[in-house]
Amino acid sequence: MENTPIANGSSLIQIPIEDEVKQAFIDYSMSVIVSRALPDVRDGLKPVHRRIIYSMDELHLASSGKTKKCATIVGDVLGKYHPHGDASVYDALVRLGQDFSQRYIVVEPGGNFGTIAGDPAAAYRYTEAKMTKIAEEMVADIDKDTVDMVPNFDDERKEPSVLPSKFPFLLCNGSMGIAVGMATNMPPHNLREVASAIGAYIDNPEITLDELLTHIKGPDFPTGGIIFGRQGIKDAYRTGRGKILVRGRFKIEVNEKSGAESIVFTEVPYGINTRTLCEKIGELARDKVIEGISAINDESSDRSGMRIVIHLKRGVVTKLVINQLFAKTALQSSFGVINLALVNGRPQVLNLKQIIKCFVDHRDDVITRRTKFDLGKAKAREHILEALITAVDAIDEVIKIIRGSRDEAEAKASLMQRFSFDDIQAQAIVDMQLKRLTHLRIDELKKEMEELKKWIAHLEDLLAHHEKILALIKQDTNELSEKYGDDRRTDIVAGEVESINIEDMIKEEDMVILISKLGYIKRVPVSQYKSQGRGGKGTISAKLVEEDYINQMFVASTHDYLMFITTAGKAYWIKVHEIPEAAKTSRGSHIKSLLAVTANEDITTIVNLKEFTDSEFLFMATANGIVKKTPTSEFRNAKSRGMQAARLDDGDQLVSSILSSGKDEILLVSRRGQALRINEEEVRPMGRSSRGVNGMKLSEGDELCAAIKIYNEPDSKILVVTEKGIGKRVDPNEFNAHGRGTGGQRIFGNVDDKGEIIGSLSVKDDDGVMCITSQGTSIRVEASSITVQGRSASGIKVVDIKDPDYVVGIDRIAHSDEDKADA
C-alpha cells in the first residue's frame, strides 16, 4: 500500500488491519507469557511473586522480626514494581501464605488468610505478614551481584530479574498459570526428595529418569491425599505432561448407639474447595444419585484439622457409597501436569531432569557470581590492608607527612610518592582513625590479613574448580532439607492402576430388576424375597399407580452389564449397580433417567452379560418369529446412549434376547403352545442393522413369546407358565430338532382354558423361579415343586391370582448355600 502525505511533512503508513491485529496480539501474548502468567524455571516465581518477596525483603520483614500490614506491602509492590491492580497483588500475597495452597509457605500470615473451604482472606488493611525463613533463603546474597538487576516500570529504581533462590521453589511448591494459548500446572513435591534428586543429578549428570524416580517418588500435595498409579507420574517426569489420579483419604467410624457408620475424610485432593464439595455431595444425596447418606457435616477446625463427616443410614453398604463418592465428586480428581516454564525468557515444556538441571545451572551461576563478588571485595580489602600495615609500621613518618601538608590532597600526594600507594590506599591512610595507631592494632591488621589471604585462596580455588561449586550447591540444598524438610503427606499406591474399578468394592449379589409398563425401574436384592410353597399368595413387589403394572423382570449380579433391547430395535446397556436400589414396595426411578430412550420406544427385553466379546452372541427373536444373532462385541459402545441392534418389520417387536456361544440348541416357544427346537448354527452371524431370518413358522393369531437355550444336563427341564398362573416342566429331550422355519411341536395342552404362555425358562431342580403379575405381586417358588409333565399336558397352578390380574414375567433364580439352608 502507498503512504499518504499528511501535515508537517509526515506521512500516513497504510497497512492491512489483519497484520496489525496479529502483531498486536502477539505483543500482548508475549507480555502475558513473560511478564505475568508463567514462572521462571530458575526461581520458580512469576513476576508478581518475585516482586512481593523482594519488596518484603526491602521492607526488612524478616522472619525474626515483626509483621507489617499487608496494605503496606501491597502499596510498596504497586508503587515500586508492579503497576497492576491491588487485588491481584494481594491475592498472590495471600496464596503464598496459605498452607493448603503452598507445600512450603514463604509468607507468614498474621490474621485471616482464607480457608480451604473457600472463605476469602480479610481485607489487606486488617491482615499482616512477614517473610518465612524459606523466603529469606530465596533472597540470600541478592546484594552480592548474584542476579541481574533491571529497571522497574518507571526507570526510577532497579528490581531483580530473578531471585538467587537457594530454595528449589518450582519443584517444591509447583505453579499454576494460564497464559495466552498455553498454561502451566506443576505439582508440588517433598523438599527432602527434591534435595536428594538434586544431589544425585550433581553426582551424575547422566542420571536416568528411572534413577531419579528412586529419589522423587511423585508429587507431594499440601492437602495430602492418595495418588493411584505411577504411569501418570512417569509420563509427567519423562515428557512434561501427564495425568495423576488423586483421591481423598478417609476412615470409617461407627456410632456405638445407633450402629450406623460414617465416612470421615481427613484429606482431599489438591485444589478442592471443601464447601463446594460438601454442597455437591448434599445435592447428590437429595437427588438420590448417591443413596444411603443421611447427613454431611464439615467439622474441620484448626485444632482437629480437616474432618468432613458423611453420615450413612443403617444397613447401607459403606464401600458402595465410598466408590460412588469417588466416581461422582471431586474426592477423586485428576491433576493434569503441564511442566511449562520460562527458560531464557521462552516458554518450554520440561521434563523432571531438565527442571533440576535448570535449577542447578541457576545456582551455579549465582554462586559463581557471588564468589567473584566476594573475591573482588576481599582483594579490595587486601589492597587496603597492605597500605594500613605499611602505614602503621612507619606511623611517625606518616603523621609527619600528614601534619606537614596544607590539605588532604597534598597529604595523599605525598603519601603516594613516599610509599608508592595508589589513590585508594592513600585515601584509606588519610581516613585512618587515631585509635588504630596503637601497637595492638597492628597485630589485628596482620591477623585480618592472614585470614583474608586464606579466604581469597578459598574463593580462587572455588572458581578454579567447578566441581567444588557443584558440591557447594549440593551442600546448600541438603542443609535446606535438614532445616525445613518434612515427611511426605501424599501416599502413592504401588502398581500401574490408572483408574479405580468401582466393582472392586461393590458387593457381588443377585438383584431382581423390575420394570413397569410406564418405564419405572429398580433393583431389589434377591434375599428380600422369601421362598414360598407352590400356590402361595406372594408378596407385594411394587406399589404402582393404577394405570401401571410390572411387565419386565430380570435377575442379574451387581457386576453384570444389563443390555436393554427396545421396540425400535435399539440396544442400550448400563451396569446393574448403576440402577438405583429401592425397597420392594417402592416404584423406583424412571428408565429415561438412566437411558437415552426416546418417547416412541419401549423396553421389550433385557439380557445380562459379563463382558463384550466376538465369541459370544446376542441371539434375538421377534414376535413374528424372526431370529438373528450378533456378536456382543458390536454392542461395546452402546452404553446409555444406545445403538441399532436389529431392523424390525412394521408391527413386529423383540420378545427375547439371550446370550449364546453360536452353536447352542435353541427352543422357540409360541404363546399358543407350540415349540421349535433348532440348532443355532442354522442362523449365520449378522450385523447390528440386519433384519434376520425366519426362525419359526407361526399359525394365524400366534406369536413368539420366548427363545431359550437347551442344556444337555439330566436335571435340566423346560418350564412354561401361562398368563393365568398355570405351569409345568417338560423334558427337552421330548423335542426333536427341526429345520429353521418350521412349525415345531406341541409344548402345552389347553391354552384356551389355561391361558396363553407368557414365558419359558431352562431350569434345574435346585433353581428358584420368580413370577411377577401385572399388579405388582411377586412369588418365588422352587422349580422342583412344579410337576414334570408331557408335551401335551396342561400344567398345574403355580401362582394363585384373581382376575383381572395376570402373570407378565418369569425368571430363574440360582440358589445360594444360604438359600438352601433356609429352604
Automatic annotation (TrEMBL):
It comes from Treponema peruense. Belongs to the type II topoisomerase GyrA/ParC subunit family. It catalyses: ATP-dependent breakage, passage and rejoining of double-stranded DNA. Its EC number is 5.6.2.2. GO terms for molecular function: ATP binding; DNA binding; DNA negative supercoiling activity. Keywords: ATP-binding, Cytoplasm, DNA-binding, Isomerase, Nucleotide-binding, Topoisomerase. Residues 38-505 form the Topo IIA-type catalytic domain. A motif (GyrA-box) lies at residues 532-538. Heterotetramer, composed of two GyrA and two GyrB chains. In the heterotetramer, GyrA contains the active site tyrosine that forms a transient covalent intermediate with DNA, while GyrB binds cofactors and catalyzes ATP hydrolysis. It is found in: Cytoplasm. Pfam families: DNA_gyraseA_C, DNA_topoisoIV. Few gyrases are as efficient as E.coli at forming negative supercoils. Not all organisms have 2 type II topoisomerases; in organisms with a single type II topoisomerase this enzyme also has to decatenate newly replicated chromosomes. A type II topoisomerase that negatively supercoils closed circular double-stranded (ds) DNA in an ATP-dependent manner to modulate DNA topology and maintain chromosomes in an underwound state. Negative supercoiling favors strand separation, and DNA replication, transcription, recombination and repair, all of which involve strand separation. Also able to catalyze the interconversion of other topological isomers of dsDNA rings, including catenanes and knotted rings. Type II topoisomerases break and join 2 DNA strands simultaneously in an ATP-dependent manner. InterPro entries: GyrA (IPR005743), GyrA/parC_rep (IPR006691), Gyrase/topoIV_suA_C (IPR035516), Topo_IIA-like_dom_sf (IPR013760), Topo_IIA_A/C_ab (IPR013758), Topo_IIA_A_a_sf (IPR013757), Topo_IIA_dom_A (IPR002205), Type_II_DNA_Topoisomerases (IPR050220). The active site is at residue 126. Coiled coil: none annotated. GO terms for biological process: DNA topological change; DNA-templated DNA replication. Its main location: cytoplasm. This is DNA gyrase subunit A. The gene is gyrA. It comes from the Bacteria. PROSITE patterns: TOPO_IIA. One of its GO terms (cellular component) is DNA topoisomerase type II (double strand cut, ATP-hydrolyzing) complex.
